[in-house]
Write a structure and sequence with these properties.
- Helix 1 crosses helix 2, helix 1 crosses helix 4 and helix 3 packs antiparallel against helix 4.
- The protein contains 5 helices and no strands.
- It is 72% helix and 0% strand.
- The protein is globular, with a radius of gyration of 16 Å.
- It has a single domain, classed as Helix Hairpins (Orthogonal Bundle).
């Protein structure tokens, strides 16, 4: 399913993820007071993992309902929380790229 009602030109996901990942790493370094991300990075791990489960469920519901706008929104939440887990556990985007490339079928 493709949503043809996009307001802006399509931007590649790679640079967006890299930028967000960089911001999350900065939050980990600086630990700004009142930052939701900083709380996720330093708080109980189970709280963060429960957010992953919650966001996954919301993705499933939006997809099942065929609500593309809501699905896009929920996927954004899931991407964010997954990246927070990666920063917390010190897994880089390059680590994930390597892992995913290993899974590609050999041509």
């Amino acid at each position: 399913m493709t949503d043809t009602n996009q307001a802006s030109p399509v931007e590649s996901l790679g640079p967006v993820l890299e930028d967000l990942f960089s911001v999350l790493e900065q939050r980990k370094r600086d630990m700004p007071e009142g930052s939701y991300t900083a709380k996720l990075l330093t708080g109980p791990q189970d709280k963060l993992l429960k957010k992953i489960a919650e966001e996954s469920g919301e993705v499933i519901i939006a997809a099942a309902q065929g609500d593309i706008a809501q699905l896009r929104y929920e996927l954004g939440d899931l991407f964010y929380h997954m990246l927070v887990v990666m920063v917390r556990e010190e897994i880089s985007l390059e680590d994930m790229a390597t892992e995913l490339l290993k899974r590609r079928p050999k041509q």
